[in-house]
Amino acid sequence: MRGRGLALAARNGRSGNNRPVKVLVVGSGGREHALAWAISRSGSLTELHAAPGNPGIAALASCHPVRADDPASLVPLARELPVDLVVVGPEAPLVAG
């Protein structure tokens, strides 16, 4: 039951932790656009970034020219920003480790 309450709170934009959050969305497809759109609705969000993103995502987030399948560039970007959460959309980077 606790998990369900957390899901409902998150869906309604409320959670027990209203700490400011910076998020990096990795990818450039429709899935990543949907993720960026949903994340952009959070009341806790202070910055939304995407790598590499696309024109639709650019309307919601700051896009960075880093390939989704290039962890050697993604890690320094995440540290430089510095983000609190990285959301990886495509399967390929997850499979590659």
Write the layout of secondary structure elements.
Elements: H1 2-11, E1 21-27, H2 30-40, E2 45-52, H3 55-58, E3 62-63, H4 71-80, E4 85-88, H5 91-96
Parallel strand pairs: 1-2, 1-4, 2-3
Task: Describe the protein's architecture and organization.
- This protein has 97 residues and is α/β, with parallel strands linked by helices.
- The chain has a 4-stranded parallel sheet with strand order 3-2-1-4.
- It contains 5 helices and 4 strands, in the order H-E-H-E-H-E-H-E-H.
- Strand 2 (45-52), helix 3 and strand 3 form a beta-alpha-beta unit.
- The longest helix has 11 residues, at 30-40.
- The protein has helices spanning 2-11, 30-40, 55-58, 71-80, 91-96, and strands at residues 21-27, 45-52, 62-63, 85-88.
> Averaged pLDDT, please?
86
| Largest pleated sheet | 4 strands, parallel
Structural class: alpha/beta
Which percent range describes the beta-strand content?
A: 15-25%
Shape: globular
Distance separating the two termini:
33 Å
Cα Rg: 14 Å
Q: pLDDT below 50 for ≥5 consecutive residues: which ranges?
A: 1-12
How are helices and strands ordered from N to C?
Answer: HEHEHEHEH
What's the short story on this structure?
The termini are far apart.
Summary tags:
97 residues, alpha/beta, four-stranded parallel beta sheet, 4 strands
